[in-house]
Amino acid sequence: MCRRHRMPLRRRRGAGNWRVARRCRCWFRTSAALAAVRALAAGEAGDVTALSDERPDSARDGRSADITIAIPSDRFDVTLDRLTALGGVRARTVTAEDVGDQLVDDAARLRNLRRTEADMLRIMDRSGKIGEVLDVENQLSGVRESIERLDAESKALQHRVAYATIDVSLSTEAIAASAEPSLQAQLNVAWQMALQRLRGFTLDLAARIFVLIAFAPYWLGAVLIVAGVLVAGTRRLAHTNRM
């Protein structure tokens, strides 16, 4: 069952600066939906921004993939509904952050920095002293670096507002091995049982031979006595027949 979590928006200073950056994280029970997620991003005028797909050596091993897509913010809710309709969603979380105040602050800082840049350029044009020009030029370099950095951060925030981010994790568990042993395993078991029976038969035969050897004087004596009696009886019978 899909679990949904929504985080509260960060408190804003001004109601007129409402600019929301939204993000969603989805977990799927199957990796088979990877192609469908990519097709969904293309169908919603979005793009794949990151992809990691670990393919196993064997079809019985588990497979996992992570994909990040950027979707136009006005298509965010529709895209989430279509993702859920794919089936196999284990859980998902949705977060939203109001960055309107930060964008307003960045814009104000950029205006101030650009005014400072313009003032420094005018000072350099009016000044005729090399030392003053070099000093202003060093300060101007730092101001321009701040402008570039702040401008990049502001554009990144604007992109987060214009395009929502959806992170999708897909995984398939490894198929459990069959409980029935293979033919080779069965042959190995049969061979081991045959060896055990042969060992038992050999030990039993050796025990019987040792018994015979141990009692050899007794049964040899008995054989000699019986043989002597038979010989004596045979001779007596022969002597009687001649008379």
Describe the structure.
It is a single chain. By secondary structure, the protein is an alpha/beta fold. It folds into 3 domains: 4-99 and 160-172, no CATH class; 102-156; 183-242. Helix content is 57%, strand content 21%. A 6-stranded mixed beta sheet has the order 1-5-2-6-4-3. The longest helix has 33 residues, at 130-162. The radius of gyration is 47 Å and the shape is rod-shaped. The model is unreliable at 1-12 (pLDDT under 50).
Q: Summarize this, please?
A:
The chain is an alpha/beta fold and about 240 residues long. It has six helices and six strands. It has three domains: about 5-100 and about 160-170, no CATH class; about 100-155; about 185-240.
From the N-terminal CA to the C-terminal CA, the straight-line distance is: 117 Å
What structural category characterises the helix and strand content? alpha/beta
Measured on Cα atoms, how large is the radius of gyration? 47 Å
Estimate the helix proportion, in percent: 55-70%
Give the biggest sheet.
Answer: 6 strands, mixed
Pattern of helices and strands? EEHEEHEHHEHH
The count of β-strands is: 6
How confident overall, as mean pLDDT?
80
Domain module tally: 3
The protein's oligomeric status is single chain
Fill in the keyword field for this structure:
243 residues, disordered N terminus, 3 domains, 6-stranded mixed β-sheet, alpha/beta
What are the SSEs and their pairings?
Layout: E1 4-6, E2 20-28, H1 34-43, E3 47-54, E4 63-72, H2 76-85, E5 89-98, H3 100-126, H4 130-162, E6 163-172, H5 183-214, H6 216-242
Parallel strand pairs: 1-5, 2-6
Antiparallel strand pairs: 2-5, 3-4, 4-6
Helix pairs in contact: 3-4
